[in-house]
Amino acid sequence: MFLEELLPEERVAFIELAALIAGVDGNLSVYENSILEKYKKEMDLKNYQIKGWAMEDILNTFQTKRAKTIVLTELFQLVFSDGILHEQENMCIRQIKKHFGFDEKEFQSFKDWVDKIKELSNEWGK
User: Co-chaperone DjlA N-terminal domain spans which residues (predicted)?
Assistant: First the structure.
């Protein structure tokens, strides 16, 4: 949704992070794969091959509050795409929250916003 606002190096870091999060539970669902492809298309990275960067290297790429907000919001969409928040995904999201310096209120606000967007999308799809 807002990924086009990221700088080129942030876009690459984001797709690396999204791939890492999507596969953290050991199962890349069809929903998660579809979202990864959507992300690549949105960021003009269709032919990008995931390199497997380390989480710490990825997270250090994002410097601004805006970039960090975009990343966390988009990751919520990814982890909720299959309807299940796996424990490993939750742990990673919480690690990102902590690294980025978001407090619990901000974190819950992002989560609620993504839940509402998903709910509206489901209603429109009927």
Answer: 62-110
